[in-house]
Amino acid sequence: MIGILADSHDNLIALRRAVRLFNDAKCSLVIHAGDFVAPFAARELRGLVCPVKGVFGNCDGEKPGLVKVFQDMGEIVVAPLVFEHDGLRFLVSHLNAPVEGYLKTRRETGGKGLLSTGRTSRGCVSQALFRDQSYDVLVFGHTHKAEVRREGGVVVVNPGEAGGWLHGKSTAALLDNTVISKAGSRFRSIDVEIITI
User: Fold this and answer.
1) Secondary structure (3-state) at 33
2) pTM for the predicted model, two decimal places
3) What CA dihedral angle connects 148, 150, 156 and 159, to 10 degrees?
4) Which of 15, 41, 43, 127 sits CB 3.0–4.6 Å from 10 for a disulfide?
């Protein structure tokens, strides 16, 4: 099980609830798709019994402080964050534009991914990501709208807003990455559930 959240915006109560949810679900990893806002909020994730991977959001102003908090619990980087966990390839971004751009180019190139990498001076991905890469799961935040969809074999997840300030509902996601054996063959089932915390 993998826990996913974004846009916590300093809501300590919601972060504590998310930590309980993820620990109860025995998550092997938690992903935060940006906008902690301040390091004191990120410290709440120290209660997790698994590592955390995260990206900076557009409201994360105190980046050195966030990096320091993450030193003993995982990693936080400027997006995109690309990694493999439990046999799945992830791409994590705060903004939705890189995710949508990747999917659009993937459709246009017959599934080959994006063609080049570029960054603006603000660190945002402006063009494509990683030639000929394919991802199993794309995670983003920023819009504060929970969303789970499949597109061309790729699972796209926006866990919504953990902070709950914009829509009045704090949400997170649980990704169940189960390997299923059936009639002598093995396949992977990826199910994602959005949960109110």
Assistant:
1) coil
2) 0.84
3) 10
4) 41
